[in-house]
Design goal:
about 170 residues; mainly alpha; about 70% helix
Length: about 170
């Protein structure tokens, strides 16, 4: 389809693979997520996918893209040896989303429009009829929590920045 820059079959498979890799990444240092951030997957792939595949016939692709967003914005574990780096890339992910919004279109509006149906059913007290509605709302609440934590994440102190720079030189 000429209006879709990403072939849907390959896109769905790739998203599933990325989500599988992220789920299996049990390390508190999250090397898979950091690699995806380093490759700029958020700006080059995930956000364009959300804008491209937001119609009802592409529900699974857009849902998987949201799941990927949640993984990429997770706050770092307190025990992570690279906590400062994780905070920085999460904050950069938030900045990337706002920069993308200004340049390419409002991915946030597209994202949150997915909640209209579940919230309408909830308002009508029929949320219990669809298990997927509850999971979708929970996914978005987690995403919003991640964004809020990224937005309020304190800048590293001068001492933390010095330690980080020294650690990077040792590598």
């Amino acid at each position: 389809n000429p209006c879709h820059p990403f072939p849907i079959i390959k896109t769905a498979e790739t998203l599933q693979d990325l989500l599988r890799f992220l789920r299996r990444d049990q390390s508190k240092d999250r090397p898979v997520a950091l690699a995806l951030h380093a490759w700029n997957v958020l700006e080059k792939d995930v956000l364009p996918l959300i804008l491209t595949y937001h119609t009802p016939e592409h529900t699974q692709v857009s849902l998987d893209a949201v799941k990927l967003l949640v993984f990429l914005t997770l706050p770092p574990d307190d025990d992570a040896s690279n906590k400062i780096t994780q905070k920085r890339v999460t904050r950069q992910a938030l900045q990337t989303m706002f920069r993308f919004r200004a340049a390419n279109g409002d991915a946030f509006a597209v994202l949150f429009s997915r909640l209209a149906g579940p919230l309408e059913r909830f308002e009508n007290s029929v949320l219990r009829l669809k298990d997927d509605d509850g999971r979708l709302v929970q996914l978005f609440v987690t995403f919003v929590r991640n964004l809020l934590l990224a937005a309020e994440a304190p800048r590293e102190t001068r001492g933390e920045a010095t330690v980080l720079a020294a650690a990077q030189r040792l590598r």
